[in-house]
Write a structure and sequence with these properties.
single chain; alpha+beta; nine-stranded parallel β-sheet; 14 helices; binds (2R,3S,4R,5S)-2-(hydroxymethyl)piperidine-3,4,5-triol; Alpha-galactosidase; Glyco_hydro_b; glycosidase
Length: about 725
């Protein structure tokens, strides 16, 4: 039984293959947290609540109710009644008072998992998962809150979200509505998160959790370059292969808060949800608010197991694209080749050389529309600039197709340039606060996608372009953060809804695009990787990882991204040297090997490559075809991190049946007087025999003693080793 409800003891146990999550009703009213961790067979675990220790529950010791609320482990803590740790829910009523107190009312268990209206969310059949709904009520507000828990037994994943309904007579305001909370005893936890900047996204950072609060957050209107909607609490001994990990990842692309707090009693509260900064939602009687989903993973086998759990879960239960299990066309994108300086002739020259080397799709990046020759105009004017693309889009696409290639196009639908026909026609379509100048960023404003007419107006223009030619792929970009938040169509007491309504508008537009063009391959992007998140993966099977295409910078970016997200989703390209972001010169081979751990493509002027480099492109294309099925579908193991050791980086992909594997090794810095390195492999079957670089090994030898990696002369050298089972 995936979900066991003991009505007498008022205990719910949620079991996955290897984990158990326990909930108990305390004092017949509060929804308390019992346990999350390794699988428990024994259902008799109510003692974990310490109900007999002071301060005892309010029914026994009413005079110390405040003290009880401030230490009891809660499933969904609230503001205003006495729990001074961070709350998950804060309600302001019509009179201005901020408090709520949810009491347990009942539960329901269903097979399968209901969708979340308007939001991306994981999905599963009746066989895959079960859902527990816990109903709670606040009598004063007439508020019903449903806590949703879906249990994916085989995947070892639990998802959480929350519905807030106004069943009262007065409207009230939701000032904070997080999606998940986990109260636990501290185990000297450390916080592990992903941090970065533009062109430096998702670098792993780990730090001790002291008393007080440590959080990762965004209130930029996107999941952001800087901090990521992921939080893991790990024990000090946790490595890739050992130790405990409690992880939360948010299936949402807008503002978020991910927080860990260590209390005076050495308990830890872990929270995730929409960031309360700038958020208020007015809930009229009869209305319901749906909070986005949080995915929970527990591992007692280190970070590597957590990673593979997320990868499988997202491949099996989040990404919907028909391309998920397909080899994606190897693309060449003209951005780093030409920036804005191109015309149809230049694109065809690139396409011609690319097609001769086996590249399968040309992607026309920014600069093909309106009068856009720089980044300072025309967003919103989604018609082809025929001065640049002479003869029009359809003619260009047909000529590219004659070369045997597909065609893809870049768009940035969420934006409007002050210098655009669209802005001159509809200045009110931009997000703005009356009386204030709109903050420009990259010389652009953001469209008010909380308004249906704006979503429809822009969508129709974009759809007309896609319909006008045989377009196989769309790169959906978003190049600035949200500021000066105001919508001319929302009343004053609803302006705090704009961030979330904006996200709902983005999701609506992407859903429509996929419904209207079911064969389209969609790649999301946000000034590089500012929206590489689980929300976006629901719409696109791949996301551009970073504007930094330098192979060495990419090691840390791809390591952090692949900590959670399947490598089949990471947009990764080979670009020219000196690299445009850091000026580094790396071997062409290394650039290819690093980009193989992703969707693979090129981002350079192929017409300018030397004959030697062109020959290498051919080899890389061959490797892609040889290995992509394995890389896309296999299990990912991190062997070493350059970030940690300062010298080398290494990872492996192992086929699910363990019959084949691919080892990647990058010698980032050469060392004088160095011997070869014995690199211990992972994921292979210890009992089987394997062949690697013409030598036979027993699996166990490769796991325990390792494979020999010679020290090479020179920095940035990469090595790819195929390991095959000997039948
Ligand atoms: C940011 C993207 O990450 C780049 O790849 C490129 O598409 C530019 N935007 C175009 O403006």
């Amino acid at each position: 039984m995936k979900i066991a409800a003991d009505e007498k003891k008022k205990v719910f146990l949620l079991h996955t293959k290897n984990t158990t999550y326990g909930i108990a009703i305390i004092d017949d009213r509060y929804v308390g947290h019992l346990y999350y961790g390794r699988y428990l067979e024994d259902a008799d675990i109510r003692y974990l609540l310490r109900e007999d220790e002071g301060p005892r529950t309010p029914s026994v010791n009413l005079r110390e109710k405040g003290a009880f609320l401030d230490c009891a482990p809660m499933e969904y803590p609230e503001t205003g009644m006495g729990d001074y740790r961070e709350s998950a829910l804060c309600i302001r009523d019509a009179r201005g008072f901020r408090a709520s107190e949810l009491f347990y009312e009942g539960y329901e268990i269903l097979n399968g998992k209901p969708g979340l209206e308007g939001l991306p969310a994981s999905w599963g059949s009746r066989e895959d998962c079960m859902t527990l709904k816990i109903f709670c009520r606040d009598e004063v507000l007439g508020m019903k809150v449903t806590l949703l828990y879906s249990v994916f037994e085989e995947s070892d994943v639990i998802t959480r979200s929350v519905l807030v309904e106004n069943q009262g007579k007065e409207p009230f305001y939701i000032e904070k509505v997080l999606s998940a909370c986990l109260d636990m005893d501290d185990r000297d936890f450390q916080v592990l998160g992903l941090f970065g900047s533009w062109a430096r996204e998702r670098h792993i950072q780990r730090m001790d959790l002291g008393y007080g609060r440590q959080n990762l957050a965004s209130f930029k209107g996107e999941s952001s370059h800087q901090e990521h909607p992921f939080l893991a609490l790990v024990t000090p001994e946790t490595t890739q292969d050992t130790g405990e990990v409690y992880a939360m990842n948010f299936v949402y692309s807008g503002n978020f808060l991910a927080q860990a707090e260590k209390s005076q009693f050495d308990s830890v509260r872990m929270l995730m949800g929409i960031h309360p900064e700038g958020f208020t939602w007015k809930l009229e009687p009869g209305a319901c608010f749906t909070a986005p989903e949080t995915v929970l993973v527990y591992s007692d086998q280190g970070l590597g197991h957590m990673t593979r759990t997320f990868h499988d879960f997202y491949r099996n239960h989040l990404i919907r694209s028909p391309y998920l299990h397909k080899k994606r066309p190897i693309l060449i994108n003209n951005w780093e080749a030409t920036y804005f300086d191109f015309d149809e002739k230049k694109l065809l020259e690139i396409a011609k050389d690319a097609s001769e080397l086996g590249i399968e799709m040309l992607v026309m990046d920014d600069g093909w529309f309106g009068k856009r020759n720089l980044d300072d105009s025309s967003l919103g004017d989604w018609y082809v600039n025929e001065e640049k693309i002479k003869g029009g889009l359809n003619a260009l696409v047909e000529n590219v197709k004659k070369l045997g290639m597909k065609f893809g196009i870049w768009i940035e639908p969420e934006m409007i340039s002050p210098d655009s026909e669209l802005y001159r026609q509809h200045p009110d379509w931009a997000i703005q606060i009356p009386g204030r100048s709109i903050t420009q960023s990259r010389a652009q404003y953001v469209l008010d996608l909380s308004r249906d007419e704006v979503v429809d107006g822009v969508y129709e223009k974009i759809a007309a372009v896609i319909r006008s030619a045989d377009i196989s792929y769309v790169k959906w970009d978003m190049n600035r953060q949200l500021t000066t938040m105001g919508s001319c169509c929302l009343p004053g007491d609803r302006q705090g809804e704009l961030y979330h309504r904006y996200m709902l508008g983005v999701y609506k537009m992407q859903e429509r695009l996929l419904a209207d063009f079911p064969d389209l391959l969609l790649e999301n992007c946000s000034g590089g990787g500012a929206r590489f998140d689980a929300g976006m993966l629901y719409y696109s099977p791949q996301i551009w990882c970073s504007d930094d295409t330098d192979a060495i910078e990419r090691l840390a970016i791809q390591e952090g991204t692949a900590l959670l997200y399947p490598v089949s989703a990471m947009g990764a390209h080979v670009s020219v040297c000196p690299n445009h972001s850091v000026g580094r010169v790396t071997p062409f081979e290394t650039r290819g090997d690093v980009a193989l751990l992703g969707t693979f493509g090129y981002e350079l002027d192929i017409t300018k490559l030397s004959p030697e480099e062109k020959a290498l492109v051919k080899e890389q294309v061959k490797k892609y075809h040889q290995y992509n099925d394995l890389i896309r579908e296999g299990d990912y193991y991190r062997l070493a991190s350059y970030r940690e050791n300062g010298y080398y980086d290494s990872w492996m992909i192992v086929e699910k049946d363990k019959s084949r594997a691919l080892l990647f090794y990058v010698q980032v810095r050469a060392r004088a007087n160095a011997k070869s390195r014995m690199l211990r492999l992972k994921g292979l079957d210890p009992q089987r025999r394997y062949l690697a670089e013409e030598k036979e090994y027993q699996g166990n030898t490769l796991l325990q003693a390792g494979i020999r990696i010679p020290a090479e002369m020179g920095d940035f050298r990469s090595r790819l080793v195929e390991i095959r089972e000997i039948p």
